[in-house]
Amino acid sequence: MRHALELFLSVAKEYTDLTFGRSKDELISRSIKALRALREEDLEKVKKNKELSSGIEAFLERFASFVKEHPEDVETLIKLLSLFIKSPVPCKIRLINFSEVLIEDRRASQE
């Protein structure tokens, strides 16, 4: 779960203007589609599919590694990203802040 939350936070922060809370939902949606595709196809095939990879190239290798190393958490990551897309703007910033707190709290408890 921790890995899904960390990757969610990376994607959400990358595709969200933290000042105004506007997110690039089409890129987050494309990320969800790429994650689903990577469960069944190899990375190179997904990279070649421009409908899936355009705009999210920076995350594709991380997504492929995540799917391979944490297959049990892929659906959790997809649900987190879906929830983020469906959320109104003020909630998106809160979801990002909440995720940051959870990750920091987890790191502090491991030390």
Structure, described:
Helix 2 crosses helix 5. This protein has 111 residues and is mainly α. The chain has one domain.
Q: Using DSSP, what is the number of strands?
A: 0
Which geometry do the CA atoms define? globular
Helix content: over 70%
Encode the helix/strand succession as letters: HHHHHHH
The poorly predicted ranges are: none
The helix/strand class is: mainly alpha
Query: What is the beta-strand fraction?
Result: under 5%
The CA-CA distance between the termini, in Å, is 19 Å
Rg is 14 Å
Domain unit count: 1
Average pLDDT, to the nearest integer?
91
Number of contiguous helices: 7
Largest sheet: none
Structure summary:
The chain has helices spanning 2-14, 25-38, 43-48, 50-53, 57-69, 74-86, 89-110.
What structural keywords apply?
single chain, about 110 residues, mainly alpha, 7 helices, about 75% helix, about 0% strand, globular
Lay out the secondary structure:
Blueprint lengths: L1 H13 L10 H14 L4 H6 L1 H4 L3 H13 L4 H13 L2 H22 L1
